[in-house]
Amino acid sequence: MVSMFDEGLERREANHVSLTPVDFVARAAQVYGDRLAIVYGDLRRTWEETYERAVRLASALEQTGVGRGDTVAVLLPNIPAMVEVHYGVPMLGAVLNTLNTRLDASSLVFMLRHGEAKVFVVDSEFSDVARRASAELPELKVVCVSDVTPAELHRFPRAIDYEDLIASGDPKYMWSPPTDEWEAIALNYTSGTTGDPKGVVYHHRGAYLNAISNILEWDMAKHAIYLWTLPMFHCNGWCFPWTIAARAGVNVCLRRFDAKMVYDLIREENVTHYCGAPIVQGALANAPEEWRKGITHRVSTMVAGAAPSPTVIARMEEIGFDLTHVYGLTEVYGPAAVCARQERWATFSQQEIAQLNARQGVRYHLQRSVSVMDPDTLAPVANDGETVGEIMFRGNICMKGYLKNEYATEDAFRGGWFHTGDLGVMMPDGYIQIKDRSKDIIISGGENISSIEIEDTLYRHPAVEVAAVVAMPDEKWGEVPCAFLELKDGANVSVDELVAHCRLFLASFKLPKSIRFGVLPKTSTGKIQKGTLRTMLKQELGRADG
């Protein structure tokens, strides 16, 4: 039945347009064009200049043959070009694929091929990867960004310098928003339970809403000054390139993390906000006191990944950093839940507050729901802080799905919820808290590592009979991979030899940091009992701490 509120009141061009976060940069340039947008060493660019460069980039990419729905892959640190591609690539209707700079060449080439990248924008530091990609993917167009080292264009067929590409673009190029906000805006690869990378596809609507949610969770003021300690290749920097544009703030770029440099930039640029994994927060919390001299303003920071220790949270508060704990996954645009603070907590001790802040919390403002449910019945678990279930999300801040993987997409969304694979409990106050990870993913320094990928590599060694990898608590990294091995009869191999073997196939951050030999605990059916291995590690580390 048609309601009187529907009859003759259909959507029109005048009252309904697709949401896109690209509009934030257009508004920033229009309203605050003369305000600072990007800081990188001595470089200073306004929003008007940044917008023009993004428009030129979109125009130039179109001239090279990139069209709506095509993939533009980038391998860049947190430098100005990385900010610009977040604006320019979606202006064209193309899909931005930010690649992890810490991955090995084989993984990166797989992603370029799987994502069908037409253009590869790569920092000159990673020229070896670019050369291999050019050799294996001859149709790939390479764009070299010269930052700390000059580009070697002669080594790549059809290569062009990034600044030359920008200069070739039309500053008056008329970009248009997506006709449908469900169109893809970004592609991000994440480790799956099998260790094979899966391509997570974001839509314009989700990126728009998560960018706004970031503002709401932080009560972020206009013209905030944001320091890029969080890699922009992680879930598009948790959507913060678009968040900062929405606030007409300042992107303070940082090529690589250095604790002293972070404090220097906070002081010199009056940084108000930054994000980081627990390892980043720990490094800053434990830095020498003299590095913080001269910083008198309050700094807001977000932390995600494996929950930081209450000690680190308390320490951040002591040094004047207002820490917000968020939770999410690549599939939900980074953070989609937040440990929202309550005024009543102010009466608690600092340690009690830190314990509360270490929880994963409640849904983001513009996410529909986060819950802990029985994965089979989809019934919510009791709010008793004890009954374990699977953490699930529902709402607009969820991916479109996995690229070219319909089975995995259907499985992830079964029952009308996104299944995180993380096991947790619902506390009496409605806040969620993680208890375990059903996917056996290890979160080390903010990086997701598949234990199965490491196990598969270990199994390639001729001396290994049985392998199991679990997360081992680590003060610096939060978690690191620990391998338990049974060797074949008569085999003899050293830890150093095994690590060298793994180094042939794995990125350095995925290497097992500890290897133990012996008979592994198994069930009656021969399944390795990883829970027992984790318990053994906890007991061992507990004795060592004592």
TrEMBL record:
Organism: Paraburkholderia sabiae
Pfam families: AMP-binding, AMP-binding_C
InterPro entries linked to this entry: AMP-bd_C (IPR025110), AMP-bd_C_sf (IPR045851), AMP-binding_CS (IPR020845), AMP-dep_synth/lig_dom (IPR000873), ANL_N_sf (IPR042099)
Name of the protein: Acyl-CoA synthetase
AMP-binding enzyme C-terminal domain: residues covered: 453-527
Recorded family membership: Belongs to the ATP-dependent AMP-binding enzyme family.
Annotated ranges, domain AMP-dependent synthetase/ligase: 26-403
Keywords: Fatty acid metabolism, Ligase, Lipid metabolism
Domain of life: Bacteria
Family matches, as PROSITE patterns: AMP_BINDING
SUPFAM superfamilies: Acetyl-CoA synthetase-like
